[in-house]
Amino acid sequence: MRKLSGIALIALVSFIYSFSPVKNPDDPIYTVTQLSSPMQIDANWDKREWKRTKGITLTNFMGEIPAFKPLAKAKMMYDKDHLYLIFRVKDRHVRIQTRNFNGPVSGDACVEFFFSPDQNFPLRYFNLEINAGGVPLMGYHTNGQKEFKLLQPDELKLIKIAHSLPGNLEQEIAEPVTWTVECRIPLSLLQKYTAITTPEKGIGWKANFYKTSSRSSNPHWITWAPVSNPKPNFHLPQFFGTIVFN
Question: Cα dist. 48→58, 63, 84, 193, 208 in Å?
Fold first, then answer.
């Protein structure tokens, strides 16, 4: 085997490190509790199951700080067959224009969950993005934004989604409004694209939670786990935090 020079070896190590998960003792950890019985998906933040569940607040802004700062919170649970998510956003300048699956939902008021379900490949991830009108986009990424597959519409319909706002708005809602999005994701859907490390007590996945509205009159990009990048970009799995199933 050809030996690398010292300079070449340093360059190779730097290249590998740049695409490896960042090991930061301050990276956030969220404990995901197990759901004991079936739950109705109705976008109700205040129902019994969610009241018993601790949540997280998205506090890290990427790019230019917006004039108005939305307050976004998220909660998550799981059972043997599904992941459950709910977001609540205290917002203004709410835009809902995208109606088609896998459309540009992140231009609207949008919440997002990016996650790596295979512990052996923490840089391979799903991105689930749902606008405030309940329209989803979802893909599986094996090499960031360079190599990915979007889920098909019939697959996206397997994700049960409920939302508190209308499916479309002709104009932005400029005044203060609180909205919620709730969803249930079948684990079997994920397994069509990759092996997954089965959620159970003590298992951890890399993940991040986001809120955005890039095409509204108040554009912003908010994250749960901090993302060190000069420009807003959610597709950086090396900065994911950790969710631990309990």
Answer: 23, 37, 14, 33, 25
**Phi, psi angle pair for 211, to nearest 5°:** -135, 135
Q: Which helix (H) or strand (E) holds 9?
A: helix 6-18
Q: Which two tokens stand for residue 140?
A: 């599986």
Q: Which residues of 15-31 are buried (b: 16+ CB within 10 A; e: fewer)?
A: eeeeeeebeeeeebebe
Please give the single-letter amino acid code of residue 129: E
Please count the residues of the chain: 246
Instruction: Give the pLDDT score at 165.
Output: 98
pLDDT at 246 over 70: yes
The reported pLDDT for the residue numbered 3 is 45
Contact of 101 with 222, CB cutoff 8 Å: no
Residue 15 has pLDDT above 70, yes or no: no
pTM of the model: 0.90
Residue pair 186/158 in contact (Cβ under 8 Å)? The answer is: yes
Q: Is the pLDDT of residue 24 over 60?
A: no
**165-181 pLDDT per residue, tens:** 999 999 999 999 999 99
Region of 81 on the Ramachandran plot (φ > 0 left; ψ -120 to 50 alpha; else beta): alpha
Handedness of CA 28, 33, 38, 40 (dihedral sign): negative
Task: Say how many Å lie between the first and final Cα of the chain, rounded.
Answer: 47
Look up residue 223 and give its two tokens: 């994250």
